[in-house]
Amino acid sequence: MDKLYLMTVFVAVAEEESFAAAARRLDMSPPAVTRAIAALEEQLGVKLLNRTTRYVRSTDAGLRYLDDARRIIAEVAAADEAAQGINAAPRGHLAVTAPVLFGNMFVLPGVVHFLQTFPDMEVSASFLDRVVNLLEEGFDVGIRIGELPDSSMKARQVGFVRRVICASPEYLSIHGQPLRPDQLIGHNIIAAGAVSPSMEWKFGLGSQATSVRIKPRLTVSNNDAAIGAALEGFGITRLLSYQIRPHVISGKLRVILPEFEPAPIPVHVVHREGRYASAKVRTFVDLMTEKLRQDLGRLDIG
């Protein structure tokens, strides 16, 4: 069997951790996938996959071979694209991930524009409020909010967002507006995230940095709920600037203590393909980078 074909089948099985899922991904029959893996292991004289009735996992040799196989497949795809011409339109499938609210507000319009521009493309967009491992979870491109750890991922910074304190005008008129971080103590605090009896909110920069230990009266599991509680006039919450921008513009929420904000948080477009990035990834990253730089450049809520 053709070695590139066998590599492609192996990469699909290793990434999906399932022969059946790989067969669906490649539009092949499960027996054909099984035969391809058996042929590849026989050619190499190495066991690449451990199989049980419950899971499929790469062996140590399989993990090393997986990295090389991905690189070789990408190089072949790049050579094909070069032969077809640099202006060849992107085609195929792209998997994209971003935080939930940011994805809905900023990434989804870019995805729709990309699909309208390139009719031979398909996109799966997963908006998740957790750190996603692009490689392990099979994503091509991700939008990350926060400092990036050292990794092999390629990244383009597209702007910043702010971590802001806010409340409704109704709440502030009844309970008073804090003028310093320590005056948050005693207010109704709304926290989004893991349940905790107390937490620290950090303020300021450098030598002026300080922190306040606050005790939430309401802890919710997601940012939407925190925004909803603040809009209802229950209390004060801390969110990212883009998450509350529409409500600040409408006057339903008010930013407080802006002079004590910590450093802005960077936003990056990241992808797992380097020198041999496919046309679909390059084109999408270029489009999304330009769009987000424009959007975030206008993201001023005072």
Structure description:
This protein is α/β, with parallel strands linked by helices. The chain folds into three domains: 3-84, Winged helix-like DNA-binding domain superfamily/Winged helix DNA-binding domain (Arc Repressor Mutant, subunit A, Orthogonal Bundle); 92-159 and 265-297, Periplasmic binding protein-like II (D-Maltodextrin-Binding Protein, domain 2, 3-Layer(aba) Sandwich); 163-260, D-Maltodextrin-Binding Protein, domain 2 (3-Layer(aba) Sandwich). It is 43% helix and 23% strand. The chain is built from ten helices and 14 strands. The protein has a five-stranded mixed sheet, covered by helices on one side. A five-stranded mixed sheet has the order 11-8-12-7-13. Helix 1 (3-16) crosses helix 3 and helix 5 packs across helix 10 (279-297). The longest helix is centred in the N-terminal third of the chain and has 25 residues, at 60-84. It is elongated and about 75 Å long. It starts with a helix and ends in a 5-residue tail after the last helix.
